Amino acid sequence: MKKSSQQSIRCTRRSFMKTAAIASAAALPQIVPASVFGSAAPSNRITVGQIGCGHQSQRIVPSFLVHDDVQMVAVCDVNRAGKGYYYGDRVLGRETAKRWIDEYYAKKASGDFSKDDAYDYILGHKWAQSESEAPGGQKVSGGCAAYNDFRELLARDDIDAVTIVVPDHWHALIAIAAMKTGKDVYCEKPLSLTVHQGREMVKATRKYNRVFQTGAQFRSCPGVRRACELVRNGRLGEIRLVRTTAAANSFPSPGPGWQPQPVPEGFDYDFWLGPAPEAPYHIERCFHRWRYILDYSNGQTANFGAHTNDIAQWGLGMDGTTPVEFEDNGSEFLPEGSLFTTAVKTAFRARYANGVELTCDTHKSSFAKFEGTEGRLEITLGGTIRTFPTNIKDSVIGPNEIHLPKSNPARKINRRNDIDSDHVGNFLDAVKSRKDPVEPVEFGHSTASLCILGNIAQLLKRKFTWDPSKEQSTDEDVNRMLSRPMRAPWKLS
User: What is the pTM of this model?
Assistant: First the structure.
């Protein structure tokens, strides 16, 4: 068993897993026979804890469950079970996620369905308020543990890796705490709330020798990889402009004069706020809508922008750096006093050191479009490539040209479930090999920084310069916005 995080760094993956498998046998779900995991022996099985059981967990949980070399043993959320997420009739929270995992393993063990049914099983249910009313009505004893406080989950020595699927203002705190305990991390995008927090996540990853995968899953999309290879290998000539998009807000904001509401039973609201400023509860502040409030997020600029701008970074070969100039390009915000405070219309412009210009704007479709001296290419998040001239998309990438990493070399199609599971699979492969995954922390940090700086330009409504190596601006107002104070007792160190 691990006696310290430093000891876990020195241990090999195999020796650690053999020790943990013996010492923690009683803590693992007894309902799961070995046959459920196929050919994956316990010594090669990665035990995973899920932190955050809201809307996005409906995709992350099945993306782990479909892998035979994984056993999900714990979940954590400050919400026991309740409504108010993206789909209003779905009840989500730690009890729901625990039930997904327990019932999935039980049904798979009984032969009711195969691992490939995980997405339909979780995404297709409208989960009831009461556990006993959940689909199937099957009571499962033992199994997956459920926690309110993530620190209790991190204290377990039998957990190898965690998935972080919580609001952005929690990413750095939880990720750094997890890595201190010797756990590898899969963290949803955008990587961080601030540039400073992102840099601290990079430092912690390398200090504690952890594997870190940024959950920007479209790097595992065959179509996105193909598009970026075409750009990187000069099929468009010299790139002059990249256009990226961000979606509009999915919900309207309570306007000026909105009133506080009572906190629902089973929801630890003060813990949900955590390092963020104290604020009166409103259902539209929490659950899915938090991403439209600056205390917890940088809005759709960093939400969808973390996907489309990540494609821009990959296609331009700019991983690990950012543009050197940013300015507002006509962004719009709601009237003062509205609950939602992030931009309702994303619009910023940036320029790289090599002169390439990037614009990011609100659009009904999510895509990145590259414009060069010899052609244009548009790639959607669904993996559809459009080029002009049209024959560019059929160009063969030669053996001596740039070939970008493949999460799953056998994958040829762009199905969303496959993209998600391949991105997780790439992380699991990295946990075993101790090599970086397809989107390591440095890449996630540079894309998040691009989005955060674009958001700062929108808030300041002016142009500023940026030094990517020093992560500073000549504009002191910008520098003051690179970090945010944390409410006591929370701190990164």
Answer: 0.90
